[in-house]
Amino acid sequence: MKNEKAILLISCQDRRGIVAEISHFISTYSGNIIHSDQHNDDTSNTFFMRIEWNLEGFTIPREKISQAFESIALKFKMDWELKFSSKKTKMAIFVSKYDHCLYELLLRNRAGELEADIVQIISNHEDARSIAEYFDIPYEVFKITKETKREQEAREIELLESQGAELIVLARYMQILSPEFGEHFRNRVINIHHSFLPAFIGAKPYHQAYARGVKIIGATCHYVTEDLDQGPIIEQDVSRISHRDTVEDLIIKGKNLEKLVLSRGVKLHLEHKVHVFGNKTVVFD
Amino acid sequence: MKNEKAILLISCQDRRGIVAEISHFISTYSGNIIHSDQHNDDTSNTFFMRIEWNLEGFTIPREKISQAFESIALKFKMDWELKFSSKKTKMAIFVSKYDHCLYELLLRNRAGELEADIVQIISNHEDARSIAEYFDIPYEVFKITKETKREQEAREIELLESQGAELIVLARYMQILSPEFGEHFRNRVINIHHSFLPAFIGAKPYHQAYARGVKIIGATCHYVTEDLDQGPIIEQDVSRISHRDTVEDLIIKGKNLEKLVLSRGVKLHLEHKVHVFGNKTVVFD
Amino acid sequence: MKNEKAILLISCQDRRGIVAEISHFISTYSGNIIHSDQHNDDTSNTFFMRIEWNLEGFTIPREKISQAFESIALKFKMDWELKFSSKKTKMAIFVSKYDHCLYELLLRNRAGELEADIVQIISNHEDARSIAEYFDIPYEVFKITKETKREQEAREIELLESQGAELIVLARYMQILSPEFGEHFRNRVINIHHSFLPAFIGAKPYHQAYARGVKIIGATCHYVTEDLDQGPIIEQDVSRISHRDTVEDLIIKGKNLEKLVLSRGVKLHLEHKVHVFGNKTVVFD
Amino acid sequence: MKNEKAILLISCQDRRGIVAEISHFISTYSGNIIHSDQHNDDTSNTFFMRIEWNLEGFTIPREKISQAFESIALKFKMDWELKFSSKKTKMAIFVSKYDHCLYELLLRNRAGELEADIVQIISNHEDARSIAEYFDIPYEVFKITKETKREQEAREIELLESQGAELIVLARYMQILSPEFGEHFRNRVINIHHSFLPAFIGAKPYHQAYARGVKIIGATCHYVTEDLDQGPIIEQDVSRISHRDTVEDLIIKGKNLEKLVLSRGVKLHLEHKVHVFGNKTVVFD
């Protein structure tokens, strides 16, 4: 496979010699490092690395790289993942009625900006079905009520697993997922919250922002955890507003911010540039 | 006085004909409007206006304008203030040990960017005395303890009144003023809070931001009210950070943001561009 | 018509009493001003105004307002336009192969963010036909060669006139329009240039930016004039880049900036907030 | 020396095994890597690296590290520099009459934000002498006329050399240095240009920006080369403006942008994070 690249994502306790050993491994088998980024978290003495090398001329076959790297990983007690650039992540999108984030993801993916294979769209409403059809992606509606939530989520998980979904993106999905759902897809559910977290947690953040009289609104892309709007933040951005903006204006300005911030966060995840680390992230952009 | 301008700041219940009457008043006496800005708050049906006109050729003498305008003000039950561009606001600055905001205000004022006459610097420490001397501004230290706070604040108010201070700027002053102090200078005490409010209220916001793992930090310039960090926001801005930034890095990046945001907020106040309206502001920039 | 508003866009030589006369006109006939913004250009002594009032209760019928205002306009030798909020602007979009700006405009318009009635899409390629069909908008291809340009543009103008197009948006249209075309739709053709003008005029601005080693890229929304990329600027914005970004990365980051900047510029035009003034604009946002 | 760090800045033709060899060198002698950043420029096949490690426990004495590293450097034909965190760069500042950038650098340095030892201030005017005295830094005036330029620059170079100046910062110095001066301090003279380069090269950029009607102004920090305003860009940033801003407003907004951008650029240089590469930079921030 031409231009195929391997990507190692590593974290472990920091020690002398980690970089030397990893880079020696790659160069020994004639790999050429293209990108390498590392970070040392002083407060916890944790080492993070993302290293990407060209597989052209690399003397270990693709399917045996994991096995070959195992001894180094064991020596340093690494948490690690090996990814290949040619392997697109299977992604599912959850949506309710607002469709701006959904369109943004679908259009960017079709334009080749995202490395995703979008396998499923799930909604609690029929509204976005025609969009799914236009982009030729399976669409399934799961109506959610208090009573049916647990059961419906179980069916969603079943569908997602059958489709091989590796990443779930909540594109302004207006239901709160149960902790069990989040646990099932730990660090693999990305949400867009329409505020500059931790300001304006919970419902109707634009109404909250309007009431508080802030001069800037924000959007936050984060992993979902069992605590609402408290998960590790991947990306944030802001837009300036003024007293002239009504709540409706905030909602419109916010929509165009949400879709940007969500897309950037999803792109970073798909390019294997995000380490989750406690309730924070290390983002190698 | 050449190039002298009059500025009217008005708010009242919205009704037909307000603008017509005000602009008619100015044109009748041969005033030429230079800037005019208005806002109608739909939720409360409140009308806000800032109107600035040239006094060259204006046929009412400066000292009689208020009296002449009175009947219009009464008719519409206006809250209103009349300001003159040649009259600099008397400003006092409170500071503790961090001096970056103090320097920024002093330097900008000397460069002519701010329309202030800085009459007094007050601190709870000796540290900034040499700065005050360099800029030739009176400097007074009031040590604050739990026991002496009320008494010391009374002495501060006495000094400020004797100096004619119209605006108090808290330039990273590390003491919380009593509600009585705030009440005495209602809507005339401006603070810089080193976070993007309402995120990270209270102490050590950079430590809070670091712990939460945000990707952007902020600063907020607001009027002081009896509720800590809850007063009307004048101006906010943000800086991008990453996992590489330690708390110390946040503090440095934050300092250079704080001084900008505080200066912009103070400048807007000094140019009579800010209406306080409940817990929000209307800023005519 | 409920909630119908009238909007006056005015420019003329500055004189005393203009605002008084206009606001008196509105209040005399029981109009309630909702927004009013004015600007005085000192260098040319020009007065600009945008004033918007509610027609509910206004005692002049909609169709007679122009006639009633005529005498004031004559007195001050105004350039003026009267617009109504219920009347959507008829807009045509030109596109080539890049479809991100086209989608952004179509989606925002469908979501109600833009006050446009999109009557026609014109392209020099077949590529975007299915998009036009999906949004149910007429699509016409005019192939352009050096030889056929004049003739094809004449046919385009004929089609646009037959559709009543009032505004032409070049959504990354990769042909340069003739001065005659620009003259025909003077101040009514909006282009997005993929650089921070006046830097990187002309072809391949991202390649130019990459070669120069800038740390920020930009996009510029402007009216088209006979001088390439020199027309009045409506809106600009920027994105931060680094040495890690290849030309391809700049193109992707740029695309997502272009669509935002173009949409904002078009929205301002559609809301009648832009005055063209020589080679500059006055934008009442 | 506690907390002492060594920093290697490297560039060479890209080959397999460079990172492995460097990291092996550091770990062999018990160094612990704190930061490491690398970049591969595809178009020229050039490898860039900045690697920083703790000298506590490093078994090669500080003064012998260069010698020990020499063989690796030779093997890969590296351009390289070895820096130590405890060694502050000797910096000189050139200034004319505007003092905002000068103050910003002096204050940030005194606050410990910059790793500089400011050894000299040079001006073509007397204006800033009292500032130099306040900060206790030698101040020398060299009046420049067309006739005396060459001779005065020779004296400036002599003074700078006698002071051991390693970096020259032009803090709004309003004279163009001769190519000879630039050549003498190649890649060691940093300038702030008050526009978003390459827009508005040369004199009076704010007047140019005003005339063009841009909606955003910028500032650019760059190394000085023999081509005016064409040197490698280190840092840029922008501020939003509107039709309300006069040239004087642009100058004020610009001043507060210039001092930020210059400080950030100088800080990056002082922390040995900038590679100059042809007419571009690789900035490891």
Shape of chain A: globular
Just give the CATH class of the largest domain in chain A. Alpha Beta
Number of helices of chain A: 8
The CATH architecture term of the largest domain in chain A is 3-Layer(aba) Sandwich
Multimeric status of the protein: homotetramer
Average pLDDT value of chain A?
Answer: 95
The most extensive interface, with participating residues per chain, is: A-B, 30 and 30 residues
Task: Please indicate the percent range of residues of chain A in DSSP E strands (runs of 2 or more).
Answer: 25-35%
Low-confidence sequence ranges of chain A: none
Give a count of the beta strands of chain A, DSSP E runs of length 2 or more.
Answer: 13
Question: Can you give a write-up of this model?
Answer:
Four copies of one chain form a homotetramer. Chain A is an alpha/beta fold and 285 residues long. Chain A has helices at residues 18-28, 65-75, 100-110, 129-135, 149-163, 179-184, 205-212, 247-270, and strands spanning 5-13, 32-41, 46-54, 79-84, 89-95, 116-123, 139-141, 167-170, 189-193, 216-223, 233-240, 274-277, 280-283. The first copy, chain A, has a seven-stranded mixed beta sheet, with helices on both faces. Chain A has a four-stranded antiparallel beta sheet with strand order 2-3-1-4, covered by helices on one side. The first copy, chain A, folds into two domains: 5-84, ACT domain (Alpha-Beta Plaits), CATH 3.30.70.260; 89-283, Formyl transferase, N-terminal domain (Rossmann fold, 3-Layer(aba) Sandwich), CATH 3.40.50.170. The longest helix of chain A is centred in the C-terminal third of the chain and has 24 residues, at 247-270. The B-C interface holds B 14, 16-17, 19-20, 23-24, 26-28, 30-38, 40 and C 14, 16-17, 19-20, 23-24, 26-28, 30-38, 40.
